[in-house]
Write a structure and sequence with these properties.
The complex is a heterodimer. Chain A contains 15 helices and 4 strands. In chain A, a hairpin with a 4-residue loop joins strand 2 and strand 3. The two termini of chain A are about 20 Å apart. By secondary structure, chain B is mostly helical. Chain B has one domain: ABC transporter involved in vitamin B12 uptake, BtuC. In chain B, a hairpin with a 2-residue loop joins strand 1 and strand 2. In chain B, helix 9 packs parallel to helix 11. The longest helix of chain B is centred in the N-terminal third of the chain and has 32 residues. Chain B is globular. Classes of the chains: A mainly alpha, B mainly alpha.
């Protein structure tokens, strides 16, 4: 079992993975509140990134509207909790189920009519935007005024896992477990029948179909698993941030944000989303510091918007990564550090 | 709703639709030839709008008269972008191209944000509130001028592709990449030229849209999506299709805004887009076979 799941790692790679997990486990013991919240966001981005990566990296389906599935999970759980007092587990079942059903419906419609590539990507944006406008007008979901989850000062101190109300450490451990769980799930899926079928369909749909793979069904499975994971991330998002606005949740920017970590880390790799998130989020934080320092030293004017400068550099950095390391940073780092065994014939671990 | 109101709404939608069509032409030209989905479309448009705004504030140039300047600058921008950056990702999978253009788009929006700030700004024209009265119809002067300019430019672009040597060479590249190389066309230069033409077209549309809409950096993603909707409905790569799609969306949005609720109007364009993608993914005038 261990060999089946982790056979792609070298001894050094296994040691690095163990050290990484251990570090994550003990981090709240010594980290400041700031480091903890940044790491929570990193892990959240790694988790949604893994969900998105499963569709594109494993099954070859590009979605640029993944905020839709994440938003369904977020809104369903927040609505049930804020308006009916139902715990997030109910929200997860309802929201996750709804997201999987929507994912299945979209993919059934798209793949029945053999819509692929760019057209499928644009279809996902269209559904996300359509939903955004509908939620804008849905009074029972708060519309443009937003949906808020009840929070009290004492609930911020507790450790109520059942209602997901508690200290930042609790949220950190929840998303850490989700992230590691997603990683394990993807490892298991890749070594399962579905995983092999997905890669066959991704690399050569015609050949896969000729060999008897039902490409319609397996593409649909990929979308369903991915949308369920994204909805789970949405439930976490709702209870972590406690406020939801359609403009933020369903926006194209949100969908793009979800794609960044896996693309920068390496599409189709298991560690790419985690690695990408650990590179990109700190990069953004460092940029913010740097700009504030430059303003403090009066090298650049105070009136210059921090957000604007940060995003400008950020855009340039992402463009540079695409141009210089198009296969992602993780395969490059692995090659340098020798963490993965013979990547040519063990591509699932790349 | 009585007939005159309905006609007024239809005409206003039709005129706005012509401008949408011109903007979408820029996207369609680039996709049709280079096969790149230009995710920075709205951003180029907003940069065009800001350039026209600066020219207006600086020397009082009417946005319609600033079209040649803005188009020339954006032509150079598009040419260099294709020749120096986008050409390098031509062999990469679609999602990498998408990410590169999305990153360029983010950098452009933030550049506008740094220079111009987040507030909406507009040009004050002396004919802004005038209108033509034709029978019972009341047509805003700005909207009429905008539509006339858009149609004229679109016609010029279509003529360029139909009759000029360079235009025909570009169409040859789009139809048969290998064949174009075999007969000795400089395909990479023509691609850069095409991206330049597309950008110039988007910039011209930006100048025209400035007559109708206040400009701020966050307009950009909305215009990118709008152009996608228009182009897909009309048919990717079909130039007439882009114009037709623009007019359809303009009219549909105007009708939805009048009859249902203004804030729901884009929901109708997206619903229309979903229907077209599902039942005629090549678009109304697109060629079958993807």
């Amino acid at each position: 079992m261990i060999d089946r799941l982790f056979g792609d790692l070298t001894r050094a790679g296994l040691a690095a993975l163990a050290a990484f997990v251990l570090l994550l486990l003990v981090l709240p013991g010594f980290a400041t509140g700031y480091i903890l919240s940044v790491t929570t966001i990193i892990l959240y981005l790694a988790f949604v990134g893994q969900a998105w990566n499963l569709m594109l990296g494993f099954a070859g389906l590009l979605s640029i509207g993944h905020a839709l599935f994440m938003g369904i999970g977020a809104y369903a759980s927040a609505y049930l909790f804020a308006r009916h007092g139902l715990p997030p587990i109910v929200g997860l079942i309802v929201g996750g189920g709804l997201a999987v059903a929507v994912g299945a419906a979209i993919s059934a419609l798209a793949f029945r009519f053999a819509i692929g590539g760019v057209y499928f990507a644009l279809l996902t944006i269209a559904f996300a935007e359509f939903t955004r406008i509908m939620v804008d007008h849905a009074r029972f979901l708060g519309g443009t005024e937003g949906l808020f989850l009840p929070v009290s000062a004492e609930s911020r101190q507790g450790f109520d896992l059942f209602h997901l109300r508690g200290r930042p450490e609790m949220f950190y451990y929840v998303i850490m477990l989700l992230c590691l769980g997603a990683h394990a799930l993807c490892r298991w899926l890749l070594t399962s029948r579905a995983g092999y079928y997905w890669r066959a369909v991704r690399d050569n749909p015609q050949a896969a179909e000729a060999l008897g793979v039902n490409i319609f069904r397996y593409r649909m499975y990929a979308v369903m698993v991915s949308s369920g994971m994204a909805a789970t991330a949405g439930v976490f998002y709702a209870f972590f941030y406690n406020n939801l606005f359609p403009e933020q949740i369903f926006s194209v920017e949100r969908s793009i944000e979800m794609t960044l970590a896996p693309i920068v880390g390496g599409v189709g790799t298991l560690f790419g989303p985690i690695f990408g998130a650990f590179v990109l989020t700190p990069l953004g934080e460092v940029l913010t510091w740097a700009i504030e320092w430059l303003q403090h030293e009066e090298i650049i004017g105070k009136q210059v918007k921090v957000d604007g400068v940060k995003l400008l550099f950020w855009g340039i950095a992402v463009a540079a990564i695409v141009l210089l390391q198009p296969r992602g940073l993780w395969p490059w780092a692995c090659k340098r550090l020798g963490l993965i065994r013979a990547p040519e014939d063990r591509e699932e671990g790349r | 709703m009585d007939t005159v109101t309905l006609l007024n709404v239809l005409v206003a939608g039709l005129l706005t639709g012509c401008v949408y069509g011109l903007s979408a032409l820029g996207l369609s030209v680039i996709f049709g030839v280079i096969r790149i989905v230009n995710f920075a479309h709205g951003e180029i448009l907003v940069v065009g709008m800001f350039m026209a705004l600066v020219l207006f504030r600086w020397i009082g140039l009417d946005p319609l008269l600033s079209i040649p300047v803005v188009a020339a600058v954006l032509f150079a921008f598009g040419y260099l972008l294709q020749a120096s950056v986008i050409q390098r990702v031509a062999h990469l999978p679609e999602h990498m191209q998408f990410l590169l253009l999305a990153a360029i788009a983010i950098a452009m929006v933030s550049g506008c944000l740094i220079v111009f700030g987040p507030d909406a700004q507009n040009v004050q024209l002396d004919y802004a509130l005038d209108s033509f009265a034709v029978g019972g119809l009341i047509i805003d002067k700005t909207r009429a001028y905008a539509a006339v300019a858009a149609v004229a430019l679109a016609a010029a672009l279509l003529a360029f592709f139909r009759f000029s040597g360079t235009g025909r060479a570009i169409r040859a590249c789009a139809d048969n990449y290998l064949g174009a190389q075999v007969v000795g066309l400089n395909v990479s230069r023509l691609y850069a030229f095409t991206f330049g033409i597309g950008s110039a077209c988007i910039g011209a549309a930006g100048c025209i849209i400035l007559l109708l809409v206040d400009v701020h950096p966050y307009l950009a993603p909305g215009y990118t999506l709008l152009a996608f909707v228009v182009v897909i409905i009309g048919g990717m790569g079909s130039l007439f299709g882009a114009l037709l799609g623009g007019i359809l969306i303009g009219v549909a949005e105007a009708l939805a805004a009048e009859m249902i609720q203004p804030s729901l109007k884009s929901a109708f364009s997206f619903a229309l887009l979903i229907l077209v993608l599902l039942f005629r993914p090549q678009g109304l005038l697109g060629k079958a076979g993807r």
